[in-house]
Amino acid sequence: MLKFNKIYKQYDTPILGPINLEIEKDSFVSILGSSGAGKSTLLRLASNLIQPTSGSIEYLNNKKPNIGFVFQDPTLLPWRSVIDNVLLPTELTSKNVKLSKEKAFFWLSKVGLRGKENSLPNQLSGGQKMRVSIARAMAQDCSLLLMDEPFAALDEVSRNKLEDDLLDIWEKNKLTVLFVTHSVTEAVYLSQRVLVMSSSPGKILDDVIVTEKKSRDDSQNHEFFLKINQLTNILKKESDE
Amino acid sequence: MIKRYLSFLAPIFTFILLLCSWELIVYFKNIPKYILPAPTDIFSSILLNYEDLLLSTFITFRITLLAFFIASFLAIFIAVLFSQSKIIELSLYPIAVIFQVTPVVAIAPLILIWVGLDNAEYAILILAVIVAFFPVLANTNLGIRSVEKNLSELFSLYEATRFKRLFKLQLPYALPFILTGMKTSIGLALIGAVVAEFVAGSGTSTGLAWRIIEAGNRLDIPKLFAALILLVVLGIFLFLLMTLIEKLLLRRWDFDKN
Asked: Which of B146, B153, B179 has the highest number of chain A CBs within 10 A, making it the mutation to test binding with A?
């Protein structure tokens, strides 16, 4: 789906690199690392929002896919209703509004916001706003979903619910997800593959495949929690160094 | 509930108390009208001269509003130009600052000469525009620059044109800032109109400032106070009007909770 070839990114100091990485189509990959490891920079490079200082990014069939981006905050326009926020990308890209409106309604009901279409963002809870943000990305038929710590500001209950809904969306739609997070548990729970990044400059320190059955109940799934421990130890070792 | 009534009644009560004290001091101290007229004298003067005073209030109101609209339109337009090109901003901003820091009284005679003494009203309008212009420019510029980085990136992700970015993101985002600037600006437009009229003298204009000069020259201090009070009432009215417009327009804007 996406290939990073010898990517370096530098502002005043080197931020990232070298990054050599291939993200398979329809996979769910999490990027884990401490603050300043360049995780968000990697997502912005993947979305073409910023350009690498050197190296190149290749998309599948050399064609940039439809990209959805979910930021750490919901990035909703406060003066627009929920439905108008979901339709914003349609207006920006001048797509067929009628068709998109149907999709917008579909995705809003998918993320559990049926009946909230005409609400304003300030009438929604933090979790609901994030759901709008996800619906906005999905309503554009995105095939590559980039998520930058989207659930970091939410309470645990909302977070768990959104994680499950996200997994459901990913499983039912052909979708490649690149998910940045600080949380080891979240990374292991959601992904098929976890990339651990080191900082200054950001590099891929470890590439861990997750095949264990996912569960929130530790009494039922010992292996899942062993994987969490494995990743936590990698991160600890990196921060000690 | 009592607290709510109290917050409303306390300033009114204080104001009435102040007026009564003023009236009594003037009465018992026998202060002559040409030094300090009693509130009742001022009220009588308003009733006696209401035609003159209302006409002058209307003239000042008209010039203030016109100056306010021209200044706001120009300032928003120039701020939009700034947002489109750094070179334009670097070139024009110092000129805007020069206009802002130059006292209006100092340039009034020059403007008056340029537009001609027969067109004093135009000179007053130009001077009021100059005074009212900067707060809207500075605030609009700040508002457009304050657009959240993530929102800006969202527009970049969907390859929004400059036009769409301006009208769907930057200007709506800047609206609370623009309205704050306009709230300051409408008061300044009134001050500009009055100061300019003071400097321009009579000419063809007969706004409230001219009434104040005229009454002062004739030692008709009750009338001077009457014009002054109308000026204050006009200022408060304009401020409340802008506050109401701001409240109505910003019902949907709530950045903090987003």
From this structure: B153
